[in-house]
Design goal:
single chain, 282 residues, alpha+beta, Barwin-like endoglucanases, Alpha-Beta Plaits, 2 domains, six-stranded mixed β-barrel, 25% strand, globular, EC 4.2.2.-, palmitate, Endolytic peptidoglycan transglycosylase RlpA, membrane, cell wall biogenesis/degradation
Length: 282
């Protein structure tokens, strides 16, 4: 049985309800792991779960317009061809199983699906676990995650197949997949993180917290020095020339040993007035 939606809009008349359907599905998820959010018994052989198969689909009627959650404004893109990004993946399970997704479908924690804040609904992405080299193809049909600087929220099945269901999070690379493209990832292009802490990895991806980005060097240095005095170390300024030929100075902390350590640093940063720290995987 589908759970009753607890959105405050659900007491409205039918016409306004249809107009606000997307708002009803943008219920903030933590983007983190809940010990009681998985099934009563784990999937026996997650590796045998078939990936989603990309196909040509029309954009969903719901979930593709700009929206606001927790005071942040999101602008879904119309075309995600060529999209590739690294970050932290999380998963969501039975607490949302059977609820409406942002595009009006029903969330199934055993299907190969995912939530993303701005990719088109629906679209297909390949998600690679940078720690063990596993990859999955999922269909994006929901919005989120909205907290803790997570990049993508996977279904329980996708997380289990990637090997991150027990830990709750994982370092991943996400890239769009078009119909007709090979579904098997090229393993020789996947960078593997050794079991040791990310800070000790040699040449592999590393996890950082980006706490600010400026076009003025002195502003970046001021933030770096202020946070260093509060014992946020190691902290540095990275200078990058972006596509518009503008130089951007990014203030970053790390490498960070784990996602959990990054979450703790994020809480400390918020106490210092830095509320928009984001994870960066390089």
């Amino acid at each position: 049985m589908r759970r009753k939606c607890r959105c405050p809009y659900c007491g409205l008349a039918l016409a306004p309800l249809l107009l606000l359907l997307a708002a009803c599905s943008f219920l903030p998820r933590s983007g983190g792991y809940f010990e009681d959010d998985g099934p009563s018994a784990p999937i026996a052989d997650a590796a045998r779960i078939p990936d989603a198969v990309p196909k040509h689909e029309s954009r969903s009627r719901y979930g593709n317009n700009p929206y606001t959650v927790n005071g942040a404004r999101y602008h879904p893109v119309a075309d995600a061809r060529g999209y590739r990004e690294r970050g932290v993946a999380s998963w969501y399970g039975k607490k949302f199983h059977g609820r409406r997704t942002s595009n009006g479908e029903t969330y199934d924690m055993y299907a190969m699906t995912a939530a993303h804040t701005t990719l088109p609904l629906p679209s297909y992405v390949r998600v690679r676990n940078l720690k063990n080299g596993r990859s999955v193809v999922v269909r994006v049909n929901d919005r989120g995650p909205f907290l803790h600087s997570r990049l993508i929220d996977l279904s329980y099945a996708a997380a289990a197949k990637l090997g991150i269901a027990d830990e709750g999070t994982g370092l991943v690379e996400v890239e769009t997949v078009a119909p007709g493209e090979p579904l098997t990832a090229k393993t020789d292009t996947v960078e593997i993180i050794a079991p040791a802490a990310a800070a000790e990895a040699n040449g592999g991806p590393r996890l950082y917290l980006q706490v600010g980005a400026f076009t003025r060097w002195d502003n970046a240095i001021a933030l770096r020095d202020r946070l260093e005095r509060e014992a946020f170390r190691p902290i540095f300024v990275q200078s990058t020339l972006v596509e518009t030929e503008t130089r951007v100075y990014r203030v970053r902390i790390g490498p960070v040993a784990s996602v959990e350590e990054g979450d703790r640093l994020t809480e400390r940063l918020a106490q210092q007035g830095v509320a928009n720290a984001v994870f960066v995987v390089e």
